[in-house]
Automatic annotation (TrEMBL):
Keywords: Hydrogen ion transport, Ion transport, Membrane, Transport, Vacuole. It is found in: Vacuole membrane. It comes from Hydnum rufescens UP504. Its main location: membrane. PANTHER family: V-TYPE PROTON ATPASE SUBUNIT F, VACUOLAR ATP SYNTHASE SUBUNIT F. This is V-type proton ATPase subunit F. One of its GO terms (molecular function) is proton-transporting ATPase activity, rotational mechanism. Belongs to the V-ATPase F subunit family. Pfam families: ATP-synt_F (PF01990). It is a peripheral membrane protein. It comes from the Eukaryota. V-ATPase is a heteromultimeric enzyme composed of a peripheral catalytic V1 complex (components A to H) attached to an integral membrane V0 proton pore complex (components: a, c, c', c'', d, e, f and VOA1). GO terms for cellular component: fungal-type vacuole membrane; proton-transporting V-type ATPase, V1 domain.
Length: 116
């Protein structure tokens, strides 16, 4: 499948973040009834988050994967091993926690390449 067929966003986030994205019209069910979002709360197991991350990063229809930074911290080793261009991985802030650039895996890679 060509890059131009990657047309979807996916999100792994808290309820507020996912709701905002869904209200923007980004929610989608594919032909296998798989969603392009996962709502994470205090009861969500790490294995569920990792499984959703794996699923979203292997799908050929997703261009960008958004993940709340505090949720990314829960699966940081998995996030740090991810090195594909597509889907692009973007860590976003949550309502309760501001964005911390020192924890962003993509920003760390950019700084490493720049020699910082």
């Amino acid at each position: 499948m060509a890059q131009k067929e990657r047309t979807l966003f996916a999100i792994i986030g808290d309820e507020d973040s996912v709701t905002g994205v869904l209200l923007a019209g980004i929610g989608h069910l594919n032909e296998h009834q798989k969603k392009n979002f996962l709502v994470v709360d205090s009861k969500t197991q790490i294995s569920t988050i990792e499984s959703a991350f794996q699923d979203f990063t292997e799908r050929k229809d997703i261009a960008i994967l958004l993940i709340n930074q505090d949720i990314a911290e829960k699966i940081r080793p998995t996030i740090d091993r991810y090195n594909q261009a597509f889907p692009a991985l973007l860590e976003i802030p949550s309502k309760d926690r501001p964005y911390d650039p020192s924890k962003d895996s993509v920003l760390k890679r950019v700084q490493k390449l720049a020699g910082d």
